[in-house]
Amino acid sequence: RSHSSLDPSIPPLEPSFAPSYGAPNPEPEHIQKLISHLSLQPHVEGGYFVETDRDALRVPNPFTSVDTEALDGTRSASTSIHYLLSPGNPLGAFHRNKGRTVHTLHHGRGRYVIIHADEAAAPHLPGGYGSDKSNLPEHERWAGKARVEVFVVGTDILKGERVQWIVEGGKYKSSFLLPDEEGGGESAGLLISETVVPGFEYDDHDFMKAERMKALVSEAQADEMGWMLRK
Ligand code: GUN
After folding, report:
1. Which band of pLDDT confidence, cut at 50, 70 and 90, is reported for residue 132?
2. CA–CA separation, 205 and 46 (whole Å)
3. Could you give the 3-state DSSP secondary structure of residue 144?
4. CATH topology of domain 29-228
5. From the CB of 93, is ligand 1 less than 6 Å away?
6. Per-residue pLDDT tens digits for 98-112
7. pLDDT for the residue 69
């Protein structure tokens, strides 16, 4: 196969840097300095993060969830983090959150893959289901039908790379490091900021599992994205 089953205009999704799956590989010195200067910690998704802001303002929790930190039914109005993908820790594995996340690039390049598992059944897609299927279990309603979006984040804005991107709550997200230059092998790391509104609670976090991915996308797509699941 010479092109992606997700987007015929791009080659198949493959890692540019070997995924480390929870055990970061040794980092170049400039990455080590960045990690220590920003006090970044390994994230369970992969990559590194630090929470940089948690709004003292509490707002009513709009989600149906059991919040361990907010038994009074409120949560922080917003939270922000720095997030880094690096040569030694280059994959953010598929997961979803409940809040809407605004991402802003600081430096580096990466590819994002979004599985729109939350969208209403899409009758405009070939073979899409009509409203008569709405009472089927979720995995049957959706089999092979979830819209998958792929885009590059980076500073080459005129080539279509994004410096700001929004991921709505309920969508599955994965990201992986790309070389700074197209076709090159080097990366100084992909450093971004993320702001979640209303604020992040750990209970919101939900990893994609292989079975669910198989239920949401085609077999070819699930094969192509298998390496982006948490191992
Ligand atoms: N703690 C663990 N993961 C996260 C995250 O993604 N965001 C925030 N704000 N805190 C976290």
Report:
1. very low
2. 14
3. coil
4. Jelly Rolls (2.60.120)
5. no
6. 999 999 999 999 999
7. 52
Task: Return the SS3 of 96.
Answer: strand
Domain coordinates of the chain in residue numbers? 29-228
* Tokens matching residue 122: 């899409």
- Which of 185, 136, 183, 191 is CA-nearest to residue 163? 191
- The ipTM, to two decimals, is 0.92
58-68 pLDDT, tens digit per residue, is 999 888 755 55
114 has which bridge partners? 149, 173
**E strand intervals along 86-171:** 91-96, 100-107, 109-116, 147-153, 164-167
| CA 129 / ligand 1 centre spacing (Å) | 36
Q: Which two tokens stand for residue 88?
A: 């030694």
- Which of 45, 68, 79, 95 is the best mutation target for the ligand 1 pocket, counting ligand atoms within 8 Å of the beta carbon and taking the most? 79
Pocket test for ligand 1, best of 41, 200, 206 (most atoms within 8 A of CB): 200
Region class of 108: left (phi > 0), else alpha (psi between -120 and 50), else beta? left
Q: Is the peptide bond before 198 cis (omega within 30 degrees of 0)?
A: yes
Locate tokens 């369970």: which residue? 44
Cα 168–chain centre separation: 11
